[in-house]
């Protein structure tokens, strides 16, 4: 990859301002975490290009995202889930992996087919995860079918990914693209790279025989509901059109502590997206040439994607069902009176009167 | 330049304005049908829309929702001045009250401002008041303020009272879609209503046929109806009277107008010095109206008693002016010009006889039960104490009844040097009481009609123009004609001023105005360009105007080509920042 590091991008007023504010907000927190425990680990099922697979998801505690230390993304509170001081030793990282394997043994009959490793940063950034640890982890999971590792596009290289693919693992890089619209990614999310960097990363991954899973963010701050919905539809379509990007996962924004989104939400200037909007994106992009999924976090709560409170669980179930089957007819089976309110919000909400309904 | 919005009438911070579209819109009003949004710059570059005289074009915007920090606002602020200049037609800029001047939006030359953090402040009294005050004191006075997505039939009167000109029906519709039925006194779940409490056309169906779609329509109708009422009230100068009652249906609305009363600088600047209509004093909040507080302040700080006679304190009367009431007629007959008369009243405080016509002394109408609240007693006692500290009397005769009045007098008596004599038995107008009043003044000298008239003119000048103004302006003074239409002339019989009976002020002639300018009394001056005003001075002609000018004030108009006198139609700051509308109603002018 020829792209420069995050620091070089920090140059315009908007980004300076976002970073200054985010640093200030993040400074309010004072928890620290044990470097020998993973941030989170859980078992689930995931839709992959080879069908639905059992999965073990690991949020590795690596000291966190370097971009977040500069300020970082306006909605992301995961940085806080990292250790104090910033760096985690190889030994500590391997202790975390052992803890995850123990969790799997305790809770599943069979080893998961799919291993997903997120770091709230970049697994492929060697200042987060040293090459030694990365190789050891590849070896640990060499007997599984698939691996997903999270990374910013900057750090994606064929050489690093080959360490996984050469062991016979179907390997995907999960890239937090957030949106295909550079302006929204830059001004609303405060992410420094461009869509072209994502495209380059897809090419780089292909060289190692790895694939790319794009993560999108539905409704960053400052966008009205309809703008957020349109942005997602076009983003899904543009991602699906990139060679080697076979899956698009859309995360509806939830309100995380110690973020700009949290401040806006607290002051009455932000509402997470409607679950109807999530469903609408999935329905409208059904022809896109990729697996399109969404896993709304905190659905039905004030701080997560929600509808009226009556129908949230039903719509969430339909979304999860769609994730596995990719069949838009699941949405025909849910309806609620609040769809009219949502339609009004789509028609009437603008950036200057949001949120129009809670 | 504000080309497409003009304020026609004012009632405190509330205004009747005109959005000058092809088909003009009278504000406060719903903006739904007249707004064109050029779109957000957060998600893409936007082309400027061509100007359209039929609509208010919202310029391409960066809207900052509630909670956006100032660094971010400053960093992304678009250049509204450039885009406004490029659009030939009515335009609006989107700003936030947290940094209303970001990107020089205040000087952008737009006709309206949209408040992007409205959702965060509506519902929170102090945040809302701060937001409106900050925006209003930053942007030109003759621009419309638009709050989108927040108006309901319940809150729109208070929004207008604060100075909001444009709202929309978006929230009312959303509420309807949620099955919430809105009225000017609240919000109810449609399913809880067995009977629809409204007679708008949509509600004239059997209850079971009335669904959420109908509820949306009803909510918009109710909002429209409330806006009509609000516009009517502003024209009458009586929006505050309405809000004091209606806002009580919702805590944050009551808190809002109370918080505005705490923002004396903002509300007093916008409160007219006179109105032709009644001021209803029906709640405990009336006492904190800027008009009331200003009267009390001027009586305590500007007025001086010029009589050498004893003071008689009497209760107010329902009939105004007091001197035309039956009870005051009896007091007058008993006093026979041997004492100076001052009326004690809630919520005005103390009204010396010379100021009985002066707004709002002859305009307020209070609720009389004989039961005084502690607030009322404390207020009147404080005004009376300050009055007696400033004005020396040989004797104070308190001809007042028990309930409240006597209590107040006794409190004040302890705090001042002069002793009080009480003359009322049972009630002030009983034969015995009147007899006491008459006899207690035995041996006191009468003052002449001339003295009474001169003191009235000088007292009004003090009240209007400042401490000492009556003596400064009228060291030589002759009064002609009959009270209350006194004419003020100098020794050469030149007319200087006429007393205006409807609001107890002086209207100056050019000679009177020159005397005012030459005196030590602070002059309220409007400086104009080189023209001779006929009938009125329009805002664009104003070069400068004193901060102290209030709507209804006498003002001197001076410019390179003319000298004139008239009544202010705007407050001073508004004259300076406006580009449309009448600034001064000119009475007399002369070419220099």
From TrEMBL, chain A:
Keywords: 4Fe-4S, Iron, Iron-sulfur, Metal-binding, S-adenosyl-L-methionine. This is Elp3/MiaA/NifB-like radical SAM core domain-containing protein. One of its GO terms (cellular component) is cytoplasm. It comes from the Archaea. The lineage of its organism: Archaea, Methanobacteriati, Methanobacteriota, Stenosarchaea group, Halobacteria. InterPro entries: ELP3 (IPR039661), Elp3/MiaA/NifB-like_rSAM (IPR006638), RaSEA (IPR005909). Its cofactor is [4Fe-4S] cluster. PANTHER family: ELONGATOR COMPLEX PROTEIN 3, HISTONE ACETYLTRANSFERASE-RELATED. GO terms for molecular function: 4 iron, 4 sulfur cluster binding; catalytic activity; metal ion binding. It comes from Halobaculum gomorrense. One of its GO terms (biological process) is tRNA wobble base 5-methoxycarbonylmethyl-2-thiouridinylation. Residues 55-284 form the Elp3/MiaA/NifB-like radical SAM core domain. NCBIfam families: archaeosine biosynthesis radical SAM protein RaSEA.
UniProtKB/TrEMBL annotation, chain B:
GO terms for cellular component: cytoplasm. Signal peptide: none annotated. Pathway: tRNA modification; archaeosine-tRNA biosynthesis. One of its GO terms (molecular function) is RNA binding. CDD domains: PUA_archaeosine_TGT. Residues 213-240 form a coiled coil. Keywords: Coiled coil, tRNA processing. The keyword tRNA processing applies. Residues 524-591 form the PUA domain. InterPro entries: Archaeosine_synthase_1, ArchSynthase1/Queuine_TRR, DUF5591, PUA, PUA-like_sf, PUA_sf, TGT-like_sf, TGT_C2. GO terms for biological process: tRNA wobble guanine modification. PANTHER family: ARCHAEOSINE SYNTHASE, QUEUINE TRNA-RIBOSYLTRANSFERASE. Belongs to the archaeosine synthase type 1 family. This is tRNA-archaeosine synthase. It comes from Halobaculum gomorrense.
